[in-house]
Amino acid sequence: MIHCGKKYICAVITCIFMFASILICFWGDLQLQNNITRKIFPEARKFSPENQLCRGKPAENAITALKDNRTFIISPYFDDREGKVTRVIGIVHHEDVKELYCWFCCQPSGNIYVSKAKIDVHSDRFGFPYGTADIVCLEPKTCNPTHVSINQSPHGNIDQLPRFEIKNRKAETFSVDFTVCISAMFGNYNNVLQFIQSVEMYKILGVQKVVIYKNNCSHLMEKVLKFYVEEGTAEIIPWPINSHLNVSSKWHFSMDAKDIGYYGQITALNDCLYRNMQRSKFVVLTDADEIILPLKHPDWKTMMSSLQQQNPGTDIFLFENHIFPETVSTHMFNISSWNSVPGVNILQHVYREPDRKEVFNPRKMIIDPRKVIQTSVHSVLRAYGKSVNVPMDVALVYHCRVPLQADLPRESLIRDTTLWRYNSSLITNVNKVLHQTIL
Predict the structure, then answer these.
(1) How far apart are alpha carbons 275 and 297 in whole angstroms?
(2) pLDDT for res 171
(3) SS3 content of the chain, % helix, strand, coil (to 5)
(4) How many Å apart are CA 374 and CA 316, to the nearest integer?
(5) What does the alpha-carbon distance between residue 28 and residue 36 come to, in Å, rounded to a whole number?
(6) Which ranges of the chain have pLDDT less than 70?
(7) Up-side HSE of residue 409: CA atoms within 13 Å toward CB?
(8) How far apart, in Å, are the Cα atoms of 123 and each of 57, 81, 218, 266, 414?
(9) pTM
(10) pLDDT of residue 33
(11) Is 176 helix (H, G, I), strand (E, B) or coil?
(12) The pLDDT of residue 182
C-alpha cells in the first residue's frame, strides 16, 4: 500500500499507474496485430530505390503484360479488410512466376516505396498453366499511395514500368443495389435478341448496372452495347486476352490444352467483384443467357431482403442452374418484328430439363462483394461471410441454351412459365430498345 502525505500526490501516482496499464495493453494489441500481419505477409519488407521519384507511364489497357510475358496485370485495388494492402488482380504462369514487387508511389512526398508481394494463385485453375492471381502487397505506413507499379525485382528504372492507379482508395456510398457481371463476351457474339431480353429482365428485377468484359462481338451487337452504355446501364471493359495468351473456349485443360480457360472468365469475375465493391450493394455473377428468376418474389430486392432475414450472417447466395433447351419451343409470343433479329426469343422456351440425380447442377451467385476475397464461376473460393444454397422453390437460374439432355422427348420436360409473369413489361421494353437500335 502507498501512503501519501498529500491527496494530490496519491492522485498523480494513481494516474501514472493507469497510464502505464493502458500503454502496456496498447503495446500488446500492436504486437498482436504485427504478428497477424507477418503471418499473412511473411515475406513483406521494405526496399528503397535510390534517387527515384514517382514516374512511369500510366497503363492504358485492361490487360497489361509485364516484361516477363508470364505476368499480366488487370488492376490494383485498395483492401483494408486484412490490414492496409493493395490487392492486384492479375494472371500469372503458376510455375514460372515466383517473385514480384509492388513499387508504390507515395504522396505527397513523391517517393517510391517497394515491398515484396505475396502471390496467391487461385485454386480454381482447372489444369491450365495460367490462372488468376492476387498479387498482394503491404502498403507503407508513412503514406497513402495513389499508384503502383509491378516489377520482377526490387531494383530497376521506374520510368520503364507501367503505372496503375489504385482503385477503391476513397470510400463511397452505394450508388446501385445490383450490378450484374458478364464475362466474357467472345466468339463474335451475335445472340442479340436474347442479350437484350436478358438485360431488360435484369432491369425489371432491379439491376442498375451491367458490366460486360468484351473480347469481341458482331457489328449489330456493338450497336446494342453502345445504346446501353449511352443509357447508363452498361459498362464495357475491353478484354483482349487472346492478344496475350493462347485462350481456350473450354473450362478444363483436358478439353482443350491452351494457356488459360474460357477466355480468362475467372479473372474477369474477380476484377468485376473488386471494381464494384464500394459502389454496389450486391454483385450478381452470371452469364448473358442466364437469369436468376424469383418464384416467390416480384424482384431481386424483395427476394434478397427475405433471404437475408431468413439467413442472418449470410452474404453469398447460390442459385441452382436449370436448362431450358432452345430446341424446344412454344408458339406463344411469336412476335413477327423480332424474327429478323438474330438470337433466341426466351419467351418461347418455357420447358426445362428435369434434374439428374447423378449430375451436380452448377450454381450462379448473388453476393455481398465486401465479404468475398476470391471467387470462381459457381462458388466463392475465399470469403468472410457464410454461403447458402437457395431452394429451388424460391428462385432458380433460367438458362436458355443448347440442351444437355438432347434425347429427352418433349413430354419428359417440365413446363415452367414463371418467365411469363413479366411478359408484358419485357415485350414493351425490348421493343423500345429494338426500335432505337436495329428496327
Answers:
(1) 29
(2) 79
(3) 30, 30, 40
(4) 12
(5) 12
(6) 1-51
(7) 2
(8) 32, 21, 34, 11, 36
(9) 0.88
(10) 40
(11) strand
(12) 96
pLDDT tens digits, residue range 36-73? 344 445 444 455 555 577 888 899 899 999 998 999 99
- Quick one: DSSP state of residue 429? H
DSSP 10-63: HHHHHHHHHHHHHHHHHHHHHHHHHHHHHHHSTT--EE--TT-BS--EEP-SSS
**122 SS3 class:** coil
Residue with cell 427476394: 303
Domain with CATH 2.60.40 in the chain: 46-165
71, 76, 78, 79: CA torsion to nearest 10: -40
What CATH architecture is 176-437? Alpha-Beta Complex (3.90)
How far apart, in Å, are the Cα atoms of 103 and each of 66, 138, 202, 300, 317? 14, 11, 41, 42, 37
DSSP 73: E
Find out whether 43 and 118 touch, Cβ atoms under 8 Å.
yes
- DSSP letter (8 states) at residue 81: B
- Alpha-carbon distance of 352 to 346, in angstroms, equals 12
b/e map of 311-339 (b: 16 or more CB within 10 Å)? eeeebbbbbbbbbbbbebbeeebeeeebe
Return the pLDDT at 48.
Answer: 54
Fold of 46-165: Immunoglobulin-like (2.60.40)
CA 110, 149, 161: angle at the middle one, nearest 5?
Answer: 100
Residue 170 confidence (pLDDT): 84
Looking at residue 44, its pLDDT comes to 43
What type of residue sits at position 242?
A: N
Going by their DSSP bridges, the two strands 57-58 and 162-165 should be labelled as parallel
Instruction: List the end-to-end C-alpha distance of the chain, in Å, as a whole number.
Output: 93
Q: How far apart are CA 40 and CA 417, in angstroms?
A: 50
**Longest alpha-carbon distance in the chain:** 102
Whole-number Å distance between alpha carbons of 23 and 296? 56
Q: What is the pLDDT of residue 49?
A: 59
Q: How far is C-alpha 430 from the chain's CA centre?
A: 27
Strand, helix or coil for residue 409: coil
Q: Which residue from 305, 304, 319, 312 is spatially nearest to 393, judged by alpha carbons?
A: 319
Domain with CATH 3.90.550 in the chain: 176-437
DSSP assignments along 313-378, one per residue? TEEEEEEEEEEEETTS--STT--GGGTTSSS--GGG--EEPPP-TTSPPPEEEEE-GGGEEEE-SS
